[in-house]
Amino acid sequence: xxxxxxxxxxxxxxxxxxxxxxxxxxxxxxxxxxxxxxxxxxxxxxxxxxxxxxxxxxxxxxxxxxxxxxxxxxxxxxxxxxxxxxxxxxxxxxxxxxxxxxxxxxxxxxxxxxxxxxxxxxx
Length: 123
Prior knowledge:
Blueprint: E1 2-7, E2 10-13, E3 18-26, E4 33-39, E5 46-52, E6 58-60, E7 68-72, E8 78-83, E9 92-99, E10 112-113, E11 117-122
Parallel strand pairs: 2-11
Antiparallel strand pairs: 1-3, 3-8, 4-5, 4-9, 5-6, 7-8, 9-10, 9-11
């Protein structure tokens, strides 16, 4: 079984920054991409960003472009999400996901998911 664990969530004021970290562990698993999704209060889970390990390419949702950055953390099973200039609408539970396939904004493209970490942005 593969487990993903997110960390780094918390409470921050609007305009501030947070960095989330995610690590996959468990049985041998080699991801080809990892992504971040979020689910705000009363909303469906949505794509945030993802990275493809073979070439380092990243993709982002329009709502976070220029503010959020997905990057590797030294291996194919660890990933950061740097969030700058946070807004109250960024408040959500943030989920990490790992995939055997290329980076994708589609949830069905991911094989394993974390339990999520809460990010709250106050105005």
